[in-house]
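User:
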Amino acid sequence: MATVTRRHPQVAVIRHVPYKVYVRLARASVNRHERMTYHNGTLEIVTLRLRKHERPSARLRILISVVAEALGLEYEGTDSATFSKSGDGPYQGVGKEPDKSFYIANLTRLPQDRDPDLDAGDPPPDLWIEVDNRVSSADRLPVYAALGVPEVWRFRAETRRLQILELVEANYQPVDRSLSLPILTPSLVLEALALGEGLPESTWVRLLREWVRKLAESQG
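Assistant: Predicted structure:
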């Protein structure tokens, strides 16, 4: 029998949920504003404070896009698409929606006529972004590892801290430079975000493009 507990007013944890039930819930349009994490029978549902959550993830997406363009890298953003992988039993499997995600190195392996299917052998995103407000994503790292995501950025919105994590032998280790965008370090990502503090997005993007240009030249 499924049991429900609450870790936080915005977070419900349901245990003994079959993987197929999770998949149906994740695909239902009525749940599009919920963030779900599934790990071997346990389903966590987070109700987002949309503006507080989406603003930093949107700006990180822009930063990655501008840097990839400056480096001449092709990419495809998948935003909050659900990525899941089944296991051997009815309660075995993992699944999660990133706040933002990108295919860069594996872009050419991304299917063009359907959504990515990890069970069919499609790769996970190369770069995965998680924005933490009051709820930490630390407990979800085993899910990202089981999905095979090689690089995760964890951004703590309230404390303005960023970790870049690399998947090493099924565990994540902090690294001092992005694997996908090697000109970026955690401190440089925070510096780029600070350029736009209190500014409209359009003004920030103009400043950001110049900042990235100078950064690329200095490291070129």
